[in-house]
Amino acid sequence: MELKSQINLDKLPRHIAIIMDGNGRWAKQHGKPRVFGHQNGVKSVRETTEAAAELGVDYLTLYAFSTENWNRPKLEVNALMSLLVETLNKEIKTLNKNNIRLQAIGDISKLPKKTYKALLEGIENTKNNTRMTLILALNYSARWEILQAAKGIAEKAKTENLKIEDVNEEVFANFLSTKGVPDPELLIRTSGETRISNFLLWQIAYTELLFVPTFWPDFRKPDLYKAIIDYQNRERRFGKISEQLV
Ligand code: IPE
Ligand code: IPE
Ligand code: MG
């Protein structure tokens, strides 16, 4: 049976998050510089976004650049930032055609001016699209995000009428950059690495994690379908026992 038709559309994750990893190793495998891997990762982004939207996923969050990634060689960082500008400028048309809204999480104002500008333009030009929201995590760090939330809450408790005893999970989540976005039900990391690397620490408290060996530039629609089927075959117990779930 075709993979796609094995997906139960009534049990689709509303939000899928992906740590797109393995571009450098993919390039090395092909005897090319690391940047070649990043360039080829763009096609995977396009295919995955399209596949998710076609299925009816509401939110797709892609980890594109972490705060720790600034520590890479300058040449690679610059190439990644330029690639982002180029890709954003080129893909906005497709996003509009596919009715996909672009959003970003992370400390984006610290990105190079050109990248920041292209990103804001992309967000602005797609803001009325309704089929799916594509969230790019850029200059993102989950600890940074949680700290920002803590600071925001402290500030509001000091200067406005927010009472400390009223701070619950819901209030806290509203201070995160993912405010209003449901937690991801499924998190995929490519390239075989089995770590979180400072991604969505608050939001993945009960997320199903899937680590696949595929390098990101090789990730295609069927890989997303397989991931969703894997997710759908799991039992999400949320602390209960099997017999309590009907
Ligand atoms: C992921 O691929 C892309 C970014 C982190 C920007 P990598 O560049 O981390 O590739 P590997 O992990 O070195 O193979
Ligand atoms: C995580 O990948 C960040 C992104 C995918 C953007 P890395 O390749 O930077 O992660 P580590 O450093 O190997 O944990
Ligand atoms: Mg990596």
What this model shows, in words?
The structure is a single chain. The protein is of the alpha/beta class and 246 residues long. The protein has one domain: 3-Layer(aba) Sandwich (Undecaprenyl pyrophosphate synthetase), CATH 3.40.1180. It is 41% helix and 15% strand. The longest helix has 24 residues, at 74-97. The radius of gyration is 19 Å and the shape is globular. One 3-methylbut-3-enyl trihydrogen diphosphate binds next to α1. Residues 20-25, 65, 69, 80, 191, 216 line the site of one 3-methylbut-3-enyl trihydrogen diphosphate.
* Heteromolecules bound: 3-methylbut-3-enyl trihydrogen diphosphate, magnesium ion
Amount of beta strand: 5-15%
CATH class: Alpha Beta
Average pLDDT score? 98
Largest sheet: 6 strands, parallel
Computed over alpha carbons, the radius of gyration is 19 Å
> What is the molecular shape?
globular
Look at the structure and name the CATH superfamily. Answer: Decaprenyl diphosphate synthase-like
Output the helix-strand order.
EHHEHEHEHHEEH
Provide a count of the helices: 7
Which architecture does the CATH hierarchy give at level 2?
3-Layer(aba) Sandwich
Percent helix, as a range, is 40-55%
Q: What is the domain tally?
A: 1
Q: Low-confidence runs (pLDDT<50, min 5 residues)?
A: none
